[in-house]
């Protein structure tokens, strides 16, 4: 077990940076899951089910035993990078995406990226970090609660009191409080927009689009042969993944 506890080191400016095994896991897991899911429609269904259930399980385990894990944050970053790579390197070369459509999508991606980056940098502004009192942090916290607004809530993961705390977002690895809540909402809306738009562009590229709504919106016609070619299957699976995340994001909002 101690080997699992060992830390990986990657070269970084200002000395090597340590990465724990659990944080590095999504970088290897996601390409593998995408590869398996792209094999057949049943593989896609199976991987989706397994992923959804194991996420719930991992969440409960990490919250209990490893609350400061970067697993979910690295998962978010890896997903964003992989989805962008699939779109730009596999969907765009089909030459069915107009440059202005690509620009709109990139605009949404960059906007959500900026929002989420600011959510993380502004998260500390809502935090009232505890004085260093060792194991008695909980005790000090109750003092803080009396002195700060009643909506102030102690976050066990950030080890701080957060003013008007909404949630601790494991996917961004920070608390959502009064100083970053608005940015968080905008970030979620931009990313949901980017995911849905990217998925529509991808599916209409790989699924023989033919139907039109009011002569403007293109709809996929036949997706039955997407699994015959691995790259097309990968594009299709990515767009399904995008739609599921966008759906979950909008529900959680
Ligand atoms: Zn506290
Ligand atoms: Zn927190």
Automatic annotation (TrEMBL):
Keywords: Acyltransferase, Membrane, Transferase, Transmembrane, Transmembrane helix
Broad class of the protein's primary localization: membrane
GO molecular function: protein-cysteine S-palmitoyltransferase activity
Transmembrane residue ranges: 32-59, 71-91, 183-211, 231-252
Catalytic reactions of this protein: L-cysteinyl-[protein] + hexadecanoyl-CoA = S-hexadecanoyl-L-cysteinyl-[protein] + CoA
UniProt similarity note: Belongs to the DHHC palmitoyltransferase family.
Protein name, entry field: Palmitoyltransferase
Species, as recorded: Zootermopsis nevadensis (Dampwood termite)
């Amino acid at each position: 077990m101690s080997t699992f506890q060992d830390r990986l080191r990657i070269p970084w400016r200002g000395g090597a940076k340590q990465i724990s095994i659990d944080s590095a896991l999504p970088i290897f897991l996601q390409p593998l899951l995408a590869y398996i899911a792209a094999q057949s429609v049943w593989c896609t269904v199976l991987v989706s089910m397994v992923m959804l259930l194991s996420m719930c399980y991992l969440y409960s385990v990490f919250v209990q035993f490893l609350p400061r894990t970067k697993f979910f944050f690295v998962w978010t970053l890896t997903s964003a990078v992989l989805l962008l790579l699939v779109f730009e390197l596999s969907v765009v070369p089909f030459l069915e995406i107009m440059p202005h459509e690509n620009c709109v999508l990139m605009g949404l991606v960059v906007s959500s990226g900026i929002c989420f980056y600011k959510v993380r940098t502004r998260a500390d502004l809502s935090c009232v970090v505890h004085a260093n009192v060792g194991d008695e942090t909980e005790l000090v916290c109750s003092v803080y609660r009396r002195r700060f607004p009643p909506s102030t809530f102690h976050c066990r993961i950030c080890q701080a009191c957060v003013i008007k705390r909404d949630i601790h977002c494991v996917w961004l690895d920070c608390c959502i409080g009064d100083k970053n809540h608005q940015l968080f909402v905008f970030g979620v809306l931009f990313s949901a927009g980017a995911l849905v738009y990217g998925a529509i562009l991808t599916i209409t590229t790989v699924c023989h689009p033919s139907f039109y709504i009011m002569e403007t919106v293109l709809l996929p016609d036949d997706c039955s042969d997407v699994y015959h070619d691995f790259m097309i299957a990968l594009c299709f699976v990515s767009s399904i993944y995008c739609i599921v995340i966008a759906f979950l994001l909008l529900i959680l909002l």
